[in-house]
Amino acid sequence: MDQGGQCAHPRRNWPRQRPSECYQRHRQPEARRGRTARERDPSQIAHRRYRQGDVGGGRRWPRRGGQLPVDAEYRLRSKDGDYRWMNVRAVPLRDDNGHIVKWLGINIDIDERKRLEEAHRCSERRTRALMDGIPQLLWRADRTTEWAWASPQWTAFTGQSAEESRDMGWLTVTHPDDRDAALAAWAVADIEDGFEVESRLRCHDGTYRWFVTRAVPVRDESGEVVEWLGTANDIDALRQAQTRQTIMVAELQHRTRNLIAVVRALAEKTLDHSASLQDFEDRFSDRLAALGRVQGLLSHATAGRKVTLDELLHAELDALGASGGNEQDER
User: Fold this and answer.
1) Could you say which of 38, 97, 119, 282 has the lowest number of CB atoms within 10 Å?
2) Contact between residue 22 and residue 47 where contact means Cβ atoms under 8 Å apart
3) Among residues 45, 35, 33, which one has the least CA distance to residue 8?
4) Which pLDDT belongs to residue 256?
5) Which of 142, 183, 182, 139 has the alpha carbon at shortest distance from 162?
6) Lowest-confidence range among 34-48, 163-177, 188-202, 278-292?
7) Contact 174/162 with Cβ under 8 angstroms?
8) In which band, very low, low, confident or very high, does the pLDDT at 24 lie, cut at 50, 70 and 90?
């Protein structure tokens, strides 16, 4: 390049040496027809071959005054019309008086690196969108299990900032009765290759909700834990349902025991007043049927409807065929 930063000519020895792969890829049709860079208009090279938006970085060289080496990145059009990223590096060559007489530069193909960088940025954006969109409370801990980061969901629920949750700060929003269980789970997390505990977390309004907190280790190539990635899932509705189920099962067991006691008492009394086995069978069957009718009516009372003594009597009389037929006849 000349002292103004314009491309005067590529390597003088190109005609005598095998052109590089990069040069073969990017040379223009005119060059393939025998025209050299010197025969073309140097001022148009950048406009024809640099992608719009990248040219400014490459054409600012004269403004630098040659004070520093040039290190810029831009896209250069190849012979097939595609653009590839290049890293151009150039240094000024000066005469004895310190004046720039020419520039010595090199173009390095960095297209693959730029593509990988863009793919990495896209992956980060997708990960961020996923992390911001899911309802779980996310967090990250270092290899010593001390928290290093908490998601916005954590802050929104607990009211605790990410900074406040760092180290062991997260323990302050854990229910006091559940803290020992959480610490015990962390104590064996490395051995069990995971962390899991159910505990109550304090909401920003002061109430507590049940969460199941899980974490998995991230290991390096040697298998050593470098960090932990964790989530906290709200299971409060599930815990409430489990509590109701426990109460219902206990109530069912209580009623079953009572019913068995009643049946046993009926059997004993029936046996005491039965003349024969057939007599016992008839009497006991009638009494079991009566007990079933009473239980059926009482189930309505459990559902919230009152059951009167008259209803019980009518049910028994109807079963025995002694109710008088219908309500009009009873009157």
Assistant:
1) 97
2) no
3) 45
4) 87
5) 139
6) 34-48
7) no
8) low
> Tokens 């406040």 map to which residue?
164
From 150, 187, 185, select the one nearest 170 (Cα to Cα).
150
| Encoded tokens for 153 | 């969901």
Give the number of other CB atoms < 10 A from CB of residue 242.
12
Q: What is the pLDDT of residues 279-303, one digit of tens each?
A: 898 888 888 888 887 777 777 666 5
Beta strands in 156-224 (DSSP E): 195-202, 208-219
Identify the structural domains of the chain with CATH numbers, from first to last: 14-116 (3.30.450), 134-234 (3.30.450.20), 240-330 (no CATH)
Adjacent-strand bridge partners of 16:
none
* CA gap 232, 224 in Å, rounded: 24
Nearest one of 223, 201, 197, 219 to 210, comparing CA atoms: 201
Question: To 10 degrees, what angle do helices 277-302 and 309-320 make?
Answer: 140
Residue 23 has pLDDT above 60, yes or no: no
Which residue bears the tokens 């640099």?
Answer: 50
What residue has token string 């605790």?
160
What local confidence, expressed as pLDDT, does residue 48 receive?
Answer: 46
How far is 255 from 122, CA to CA, in rounded Å? 62
For residue range 212-268, list pLDDT tens digits in order.
999 999 999 888 899 999 999 999 999 999 999 999 999 889 888 988 998 899 899
Which segments within 203-331 are labelled E, that is strand?
208-219, 225-234
Q: What's the CA angle centered on 280, arms 277 and 284, to 5 degrees?
A: 145
Contact 201, 158 (CB under 8 A): yes
What backbone phi and psi angles, to 5 degrees, belong to 326?
-150, 180
Residues 40 and 30: their CA atoms lie apart, in Å, by 9
Cβ-based neighbour number of residue 123 at 10 Å: 10
Place of tokens 């390095």: 108
Q: Shortest CA distance to 230 belongs to which of 202, 189, 191?
A: 189
